[in-house]
Amino acid sequence: MLVTRDVPILGSVSEPEFTKQIPAGRSDQPEDVTDVALYLASDLSNSVTAESIVVDGGLSNTQ
Predict the structure, then answer these.
(1) What is the pTM of this model?
(2) Are 19 and 25 a contacting pair, CB within 8 Å?
């Protein structure tokens, strides 16, 4: 079971079973979100406007 701060978030699905469903093949890490935040805060994202950036390893595209 995947646990975040001691709270189960996947019910009875084990982490390896859940990870198999993710196209990236791994669970997201906090660094994945901070990398996006740093990109958006940098000059590299000057042309990015009104976008939703999903950080989920591609999982939302498979459902």
Answers:
(1) 0.64
(2) yes
